[in-house]
């Protein structure tokens, strides 16, 4: 049984959740998937480049007992660090750069060139570097995987890759941003926009700076990723019509809910002989629209295919717990699932 050396770039909430999940699943990984693992690298702005090919103390890391962690010289850049940790897989969990996808793209490139599988939750790597990184992964006989980038917890990319061969997407509609769903729901209950944002932050749904969510850019990046990967139709962000929920009129939102036509921040992609068009914008939806029934922090993706009239994937969060399973633990699960897929592809060779 091979022991995989894992390097973790980014040690925020998702990174911590991933390490806890790896600990919880250690026995299952060994017995069911014939995978053993050790953490041989962690890198953050705060900690610097930590590595030890014999393994870092995961429990000490999670307890922030950094003085107990034994390390070796790891240099001051991603390539030296990967080499010092003798990485078999990189988990790239750094923050999104909407404009360029850097430095995450360079991190993935470095991992693949090193000979490691590269697994990320960073949407920028898909939007700005998908084809280059996939081609590099194929040449290196490694995997570049990114299930956590869109609708965390729902198997969007892996479903099409493994279960829907020769199925082509003609049209996509979805609700891809849970923060906007929660904010609109709070406005429907009578809160001002500012108080609705505050509630979403208190629930752990919204970031301290929620601009990317409420202005539509988080959903737009996901739209670009879906178009690029699943429709083979890369669409730059500047060609997506983007309108957020910041300027929604509260009275109008409440009236629409009372009339049975609630507002949702809708993401749509449509492909035809003239090309591809995409938008993200708030729309009132008729009661019969499946998107209208989505509540709280839930999300939904609806695909119209050339071989199927419609396929809907829903990530449901109970109304009594808007934060629900969405968040670091779900993102961490997607990353772990990608790691298992990468290893299984290697085992089949």
Automatic annotation (TrEMBL):
Location of the Homoserine dehydrogenase catalytic domain: 155-340
Tagged with keyword Amino-acid biosynthesis: yes
Pathway annotation: Amino-acid biosynthesis; L-methionine biosynthesis via de novo pathway; L-homoserine from L-aspartate: step 3/3; Amino-acid biosynthesis; L-threonine biosynthesis; L-threonine from L-aspartate: step 3/5
Pfam family, any one: NAD_binding_3
Residue ranges annotated for the Aspartate/homoserine dehydrogenase NAD-binding domain, each copy included: 10-147
Enzyme Commission number: 1.1.1.3
PROSITE patterns, sorted: HOMOSER_DHGENASE
Keywords: Amino-acid biosynthesis, Methionine biosynthesis, NADP, Oxidoreductase, Threonine biosynthesis
Catalysed reactions, as listed in the record: L-homoserine + NADP(+) = L-aspartate 4-semialdehyde + NADPH + H(+)
The family this protein is said to belong to: Belongs to the homoserine dehydrogenase family.
Annotated PANTHER family: HOMOSERINE DEHYDROGENASE (PTHR43331:SF1)
Name the record gives this protein: Homoserine dehydrogenase
Organism phylogeny: Bacteria, Bacillati, Chloroflexota, Ktedonobacteria, Ktedonobacterales
């Amino acid at each position: 049984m091979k022991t995989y050396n894992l390097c973790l770039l980014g040690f925020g909430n998702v990174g911590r959740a991933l390490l806890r999940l790896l600990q919880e699943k250690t026995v299952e990984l060994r017995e069911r998937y014939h995978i053993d693992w050790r953490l041989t690298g962690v890198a953050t702005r705060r900690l610097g480049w930590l590595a030890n090919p014999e393994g870092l103390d995961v429990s000490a890391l999670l307890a922030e007992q950094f003085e107990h962690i034994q390390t070796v010289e790891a240099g001051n850049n991603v390539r030296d660090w990967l080499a010092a940790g003798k990485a078999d897989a990189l988990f790239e969990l750094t923050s999104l750069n909407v404009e360029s996808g850097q430095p995450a793209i360079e991190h993935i490139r470095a991992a693949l060139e090193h000979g490691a599988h590269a697994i990320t939750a960073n949407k920028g790597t898909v939007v700005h570097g998908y084809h280059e990184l996939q081609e590099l992964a194929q040449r290196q006989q490694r995997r570049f995987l990114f299930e956590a980038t869109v609708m965390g917890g729902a198997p969007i990319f892996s479903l099409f890759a493994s279960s829907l061969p020769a199925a082509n997407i003609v049209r996509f509609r979805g609700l891809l941003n849970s923060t906007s769903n929660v904010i609109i729901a709070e406005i429907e209950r009578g809160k001002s926009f500012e108080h609705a944002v505050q509630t979403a932050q208190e629930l752990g749904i919204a970031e301290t700076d929620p601009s990317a969510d409420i202005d539509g850019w988080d959903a737009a990046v996901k739209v670009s990723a879906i178009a690029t990967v699943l429709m083979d139709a890369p669409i730059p962000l500047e060609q997506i019509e983007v309108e957020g929920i910041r300027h929604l009129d509260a009275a109008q939102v409440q009236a629409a809910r009372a009339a049975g036509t609630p507002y949702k921040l809708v993401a749509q992609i449509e492909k035809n002989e003239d090309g591809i068009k995409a938008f993200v914008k708030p729309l009132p939806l008729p009661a019969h629209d499946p998107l209208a029934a989505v509540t709280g922090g839930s999300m939904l993706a609806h695909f119209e295919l050339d071989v199927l009239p419609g396929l809907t994937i829903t990530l449901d969060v109970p109304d009594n717990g808007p934060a629900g399973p969405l968040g670091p633990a779900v993102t961490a699960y997607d990353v772990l699932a990608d790691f298992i897929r990468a290893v299984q592809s290697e085992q089949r060779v």
